Amino acid sequence: MQLSDYRYQIQGVDVLDIADEFGLPLYVYDANKIIEKIGSLRSAFQGVNLKIKYAAKALTNLSILKLMKMQGIDIEVVSVNEARLALLAGFEPGQIMYTPSGNAWPEIQEALEMGLQLNADSLPLLEQIGQTYGSRYPVALRINPSIAEGGTFKIQTGHENSKFGIPNQYRDQILALVEQYQIPVVGLHIHTGSDFKDSNTFLKIADVLFDMAGDYPNLRFIDFGSGFKVAYREGDYYTNLNDLGARVSAAFRSFCDRYGREVELCFEPGKLLVSESGHLLVGVNVVKENPTRTFVQVNSGLNHLIRPMMYEAYHHILNVSNPAGAERLYDVVGYICETDTFALDRQLPEVRPGDVLSLENAGAYGFSMASNYNLRERPAEVLVYDGKPHLVRQRETFEDLVRGQVDIFSDELVAVSDDQVV
After folding, report:
1. Nearest CA among 284, 275, 281, 395 for reference residue 333
2. How many Cβ atoms sit within 10 Å of the Cβ of residue 160?
3. CA distance 142 to 157
């Protein structure tokens, strides 16, 4: 989002015009920013056989998935429904990496029969695959490296107490099951969380995977998951992709030489590709003065963007309709009936009832984690593509909220009413 002549714009489109056309609250995504991030990642890993797989859980809008497909990248999913949406977006089954986390066996079977590439995340699952299918389906192995890195504890997935992956201490047991059932292992996978500060973590991960790769002579890929840190505020640290690319690519080329042939180097970015593209536009309902605080109460809440309350995540906030106002200190809060805070002690240009605010970096784990708490509708979504805003998801209605509910008392209530009339 750019400020020009005191008007915020996305690809030259006035943000207030978007708000007027589609209503508030509203998720708005900038396609150019997504394309830019894909290009930056590719540029950082020149000289290796790189495969990018978009982590769909970050933002599962059909048009976003189609945009990813148009940019020539594959996709990573964690549920069969995400896979179904990927197929609707035009991905082939072989382009879809399916990474379960304790998913039910019938769903695992469905994913295999759909032709998805499975990441086996536990010894029991690996054994069940072997007992049921033998050597029929090639799998990848999700390894837990016992490395505690990546932002807050809630988003760390590679430490020894994590539920994710097969602990690397079980290397012998993994190999024994693979050999017993002749399971074709075509990939090794690790994802240890998000928000890594530097490339050293990836190099630690590389040591684990490269060492284990010697057990499996027919690998097609080594998958590092993701973990790229994006900047949420001015001066915030972020992953230096060029440094990461240079160091990891060098280590990977050396590994391929030792392995005896070239394999694919894979990453599964979600936040990196879509976070900065997203803006949650909200309207100001009330500016409420208390003796010690000034609250800006908006027409959204943790039901639309849960990250500040769930992860204590920081989201920069812009006053789109009054960017030149004198700055004051505010708490920006939502309309949900419990503590529901977007920002504390935030300096903003003067906020007035009716103003439009934008919560930045809202593309990843924003709408995809939204709910109907307090029986509130989820917002519409708009994608700005080729200089034009496009509605890519309709705003929910009350009818959407009650669809699927079954009234078991309707006949009884009618009978009672008839008796009363008599």
Report:
1. 284
2. 12
3. 11
